[in-house]
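$ fold --in a.seq
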Amino acid sequence: MTSPRSAAEYLAEIQSELGTVPLLSEGHSCRRCLGPTHLGYRYCTSCHAVYGQAPDSLRGCCVPMTTALDPSPWYGRLWKYKQTTTTDWIRLAALVSVYYRAQADRLEGLLGGSPTGITIVPSKRGFTFEEQPLRRLLDRVASLRNGIEKLVEHTGMSVPRQKYLPEAFRVVGGVSGRRVLLIEDTWTTGSTAVSTAGALLAAGAESVVVLSLARKVNLDYWTDQHPFLTAMKQPWDPSVWPRDLEEGTAREPRLPTRSSLPAGSG
C-alpha cells in the first residue's frame, strides 16, 4: 500500500517554478505589495494610487508567498488552476500549507495576534462561496480549513484598476473585533484585495492581513535588467520573510504626497 504523500513532496514538484519575493531591505520592492518599483521609490504606481485612498491600518497588510512573472509556467498554473485537475489543486494547497506553517508567527505579528477569522477574497465570476475554486483548494490545507468562513461577498459592483472601492463588497459575517486573514490567489494591482480588506475594517474588524499565493509581475512593463527580476530568480525558500525591515510590525511611514512623486513613477 502506497503511503500518503506529504505537502512538501507535492510542493517539490512545482518549487522550481516559484518566483522568490525579494526582501524589502534589498531596496527595490514596494513597501505595500512587495512588487517591483522604479528605482529610488518606495511604492509602485498601483499602491501609490490604491493605498493613497485606504486607511493607514491597511498599509502593511499584503504578504505574497511568491512572485509570478507573466508570462511564466508558474503564472500560467495560477491562471489556469480553476479549470485544471485535482492534482494541480493539491500542489497549490501544498504551497499554502508549507508557507503558512513557516510564517504563521510573523503573520500573527502583522495581525496583532492569531487570526480569529479566515476568509477569501470573493469571486467576481458568480461562484458561490462553497463553489469558489480558492475555497475548495484551501479545504486541502489542514491548518486553515476548519477556520475558513464566509465573511464578505461581492456586490456585483466593478472595482476599477488602481481604485479603492470597499463599497463593492458586503460583509455578511460577524467581524467586529476580529483579526482577519484574507486569502487570495494572485495580487495584480491590489484594488480588489485592499477594497475587500477595507470593507472588513469598516465593519469592525480589528485588523486584516492579505495573504496571496503570488504577486504578479508583468514582463511587458519591467525589463530583465531590473534588480527585482534578478532577485526573483533566487531559489524559493518558504522560511524567508520578505518584510524583513518590519519583522511583523504593521506600522509604516505615511505615503508621500502626490506632488512629491514625478508623473508615472511607482
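$ fold --in b.seq
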Amino acid sequence: MSNHGISRRTLLKTVGVAGATMAVGTGAAKAAAPAGARDEFRGMLIDTTKCIGCRTCEVACAQSKGLPAPDLSPAQVDAHRTTSATALTVVNRYETKAGYAFLKNQCMHCNQPACASACLTKALLKTETGHVIWRADKCMGCRMCMVSCPFDVPKFEYSSWNPKIEKCDLCYERTTNGQKPACVEACPAGALTFGTRRELLQIARKRIEENPGTYTNHIYGEHEAGGTAMMYLARADFKEMGMNPSIGTEPYPTLTKPFLSAVPLIFTVLPTLMLGLHRATRNTDSQGDQERS
C-alpha cells in the first residue's frame, strides 16, 4: 500500500471511535428522560396576582449565584427580557385585559425535560428531586439543550474563555440542604411558594376554588410540555403574559425523538469520522515525507 494511503487498521479504529460516540450519545439521550410525570418532584408556585414587580427575586438570585447585580431601572420590566447567562430569572410587566401583571421567568424544570433528553453526554440531568441541573465535567459544548428547550432557557457564555451553560437550577445546593430557593426566601409579597409538586397543585387548586374572581381556572405548568415543576397562577390569560401559546401538553422528548435519533449521526459521528480520517491522512503523509527525506 502507498505511504499516502490509510491502513485498514487505522480506518477501522477511526470508525470504531465514531461508532462508540454514537452509542454513548443515543444511550445518554434515552436515559435522560424520566418514564413519566412524578408529583414528588420539588417545584415552585408563582402567583402572579401577588407579584408587585419589585424584582427582589432577581437580586437574590444574582447574589446567590455570584452573578452581576441586575439593572433595577423601571424601564427594564417593560422590556420583556429573556433570561441570559448573567440573569437566570427576570421579571417582566404585561398589560392585559385584567390590568397590569408581572411574570417571573426562569427554567421551568420540566417533568420530562427536552434539554436533558437532547444532551448526548448527560450534562443536563433531571434529578430525583426534580431539579434540572447542568454538570460542567460532562458538557461537550454542543448546545443541543438550547435548541431543544421549548421555553428558550439554557444560555451559553459566548464571552467566556471557559464557557458554561447557564440556567436556573432551582437552587439545587440550597434546597437539597433544607433551605428554600433564594428567590422564594427573598420575595416580600409571598408570590413564590416552594414545595413538592403535589403540594403546590393542591395549593393552587384551593386558591382558584376559593377565589374565582381572582384567578383564571388554569394552572400553567400542570400539563404544559408534559408538566413542569414551575407552575403559575394568574388573573389574566397567560397568552397575554408572554407565555408561548403553541406549547402543548405532550412531553417534548416524545415530540423531538425522531429528530434527536438522527443527531448523533449528523452532528457527532460524521464530524468525528471526518476528523479521524483527516488526522490519519496527515499522519501518514508526515511519515512518508520523513521516509523520503
